[in-house]
Design a protein that fits this description.
It is a single chain. By secondary structure, the protein is of the alpha+beta class. Helices cover 51% and strands 17% of the residues. The protein folds into 2 domains: 84 residues; 143 residues, Heat Shock Protein 90. The strands form 2 sheets. It has a 5-stranded mixed beta sheet. The protein has a two-stranded antiparallel ribbon with strand order 1-3. Helix 2 packs parallel to helix 5 and helix 4 packs antiparallel against helix 5. It is globular, with a radius of gyration of 22 Å. The two termini are 43 Å apart.
Length: 244
């Protein structure tokens, strides 16, 4: 039987491929910053015009026109938030990881306190104590902020809302989770959850840009982990993730 021999690519070829990838990443980063600048400038001007018009209409008691202008102003604020989310998503892929040991439980508790302070409804939460991890603390905080704020948002219409953050050991690996008893989702559409701009609820039900969970996935991937979710309509949801 003839034996086939596979040769690896020459070192010069690998270096060339790496250089091309690095250049491509830098180009993408520059493009994102350019888009941010080009979009923000006219957006700021439009917002200032709206604000001036709203003040004038309020003085002249033009209620209907003021309502329309207020909606336009809110739309611009939402667009500005979307730009922020997109830039954050881009930066996460580019920045180098800064490794340190920290307490995930303390971090989650701080985020939950802030969410309750800024929410219309106080939500009871439970955090498993003394969960520690070694990784990029700034990125992990963004991960927890996205998952916990997601839980907060979708429990606002629940009579007795509750959110939980904890960890379970499965197959000798730590599996972290954020669990809530909110509106939940149909598992048939679970594949859409971590795709940018894909949302399972309309803006009329819950506001959002559809970028938060995609950002969470990027952060988990940067830590060589995985993320998935389980839920049921009207019975809440649980987001699981692993980190290496």
């Amino acid at each position: 039987m003839e034996t086939q021999t596979y040769k690896s690519a020459p070192e010069s070829s690998k270096t060339s491929e790496f250089s091309a990838l690095e250049a491509s990443n830098k180009e993408l980063e520059s493009f994102c910053y350019a888009i941010s600048h080009d979009l923000r400038a006219p957006l700021r001007r439009a917002k200032s015009f709206c604000q001036a018009a709203m003040e004038e209409m309020n003085t002249n008691s033009n209620a209907e026109a003021l309502e329309y202008m207020s909606r336009a102003h809110k739309t611009m604020e939402d667009m500005n938030g979307l730009i922020d989310d997109l830039l954050r998503l881009s930066k996460i892929q580019q920045q180098s990881l800064q490794q340190s040991s920290f307490n995930l439980s303390t971090m989650a508790d701080d985020i939950c306190q802030q969410l309750n302070q800024s929410s219309k409804k106080t939500i009871k939460y439970y955090i498993c104590p003394d969960i520690t991890f070694t990784g990029d603390s700034s990125l992990i905080r963004i991960l927890l902020e996205n998952l916990l704020s997601n839980a907060w948002k979708y429990t606002q219409k629940t009579s007795y809302p509750r959110v939980e953050f904890g960890v379970a050991v499965k197959q000798n690996k730590n599996v972290f989770y954020v669990k809530d008893n909110g509106v939940g989702f149909d598992m048939h559409y679970a594949y859409k959850l971590f795709t940018p701009f894909q949302r399972l609820h309309s803006d009329n039900e819950f506001e959002g840009t559809g970028v938060g969970l995609a950002t969470a996935k990027r952060i988990v991937q940067r830590h060589n982990g995985g993320i998935w979710a389980k839920g049921a309509v009207g019975k809440g949801s649980t987001f699981y993730f692993t980190l290496e």
